[in-house]
């Protein structure tokens, strides 16, 4: 596991960009017909995403906490969350600036 909270936040942002790009690509190609597999796929993607984000955000802080390093655990989590908040702000600025469609 990566011990750099900023890289974890960037990986979370990159995962989101990847998933949205793939969904956008498939929607422009026409996508599949309506079927029971669409909601099954979306719920599976949600579960995968929650598991991955949980790992990126909580694994290292939880490991540090279990080793009785409370300050380091809190610091790691806050740094990861703060870096991800910066990424979210960048996404919002790009959304409203209309630089990227």
Task: Fill in the keyword field for this structure.
mainly alpha, 101 residues, flat
Structural class: mainly alpha
Helix content: over 70%
Count the domains. 1
How many helices? The count is 3
The parts where pLDDT drops under 50 for at least 5 residues are none
* Sheet with most strands: none
Mean pLDDT: 92
Distance between the termini: 34 Å
Number of strand segments = 0
Order of helices and strands: HHH
Radius of gyration: 17 Å
Task: Give the strand content.
Answer: under 5%
The general outline is: flat
Please provide a brief summary of the model:
The chain has 101 residues and is an all-alpha fold.
Question: Can you walk me through this structure?
Answer:
With 101 residues, this protein is an all-alpha fold. The protein has one domain (5-97). It contains three helices and no strands. The longest helix is centred in the middle third of the chain and has 30 residues, at 37-66. The radius of gyration is 17 Å and the shape is flat.
């Amino acid at each position: 596991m990566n011990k750099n909270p900023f890289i974890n936040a960037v990986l979370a942002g990159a995962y989101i960009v990847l998933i949205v790009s793939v969904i956008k690509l498939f929607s422009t190609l026409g996508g599949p017909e309506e079927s029971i597999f669409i909601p099954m796929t979306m719920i599976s993607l949600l579960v995968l995403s929650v598991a991955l984000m949980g790992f990126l955000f909580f694994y290292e802080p939880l490991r540090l906490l279990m080793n009785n390093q409370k300050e380091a655990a809190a610091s790691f989590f806050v740094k990861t969350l703060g870096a991800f908040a910066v990424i979210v702000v960048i996404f919002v600025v790009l959304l409203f600036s209309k630089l990227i469609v």
